[in-house]
Design a protein that fits this description.
This protein has helices spanning about 10-30, 35-55, 105-115, and strands spanning about 5-10, 60, 75-80, 85-90, 95-105. By secondary structure, it is of the alpha+beta class. It has one domain (about 5-115): RelE-like (YaeB-like fold). Strand 3 and strand 4 (about 85-90) form a beta hairpin. Helix 1 packs across helix 2 (about 35-55). The longest helix has 19 residues, at about 10-30.
Length: about 120
């Protein structure tokens, strides 16, 4: 039996997604096509569908590398266009699997979260 998979955007990720949706809506009204924001939104939607099909789609972040402020047992990374990343955690029970998206971040923000520095 396959459990249903839900993807829920939390806090920062939800705010970023809604902001992106507003920008794309305005760009569409202005007659713009295929802007970076439109590409990023499509990329996010596509990856969410991939995660719904396979919650383990992303790259698993080793436990020792999970930032403490996330306070999760597992963390997964999905690469989006232009070096953006989507970070999520997987929780499940006997009925369903829920993937909580914790962040949709650009490359610089991703590096800060994980303590990477430019060389």
């Amino acid at each position: 039996m396959n459990k249903p998979v839900r993807v829920i955007l939390l806090d920062e990720a939800d705010i970023e997604y809604k902001k992106l949706n507003e920008i794309v809506g305005q760009q569409t009204s202005d007659g713009k096509e295929n802007t970076f924001e439109m590409q990023l939104l499509r990329s996010i939607k596509q990856k969410v569908e991939f995660i719904k099909s396979n919650p383990f789609y992303g790259n698993n972040i080793p436990k020792k590398n999970i930032p403490r402020n996330y306070n999760v047992q597992n963390l997964w990374r999905v690469e989006l266009i232009n070096f953006w990343r989507m970070l999520y955690t997987i929780k499940g029970d006997q009925i369903e699997i829920i993937c909580f998206v914790l962040g949709i971040v650009n490359h610089d923000r991703y590096n800060k979260i994980f303590g990477y520095r430019k060389k």
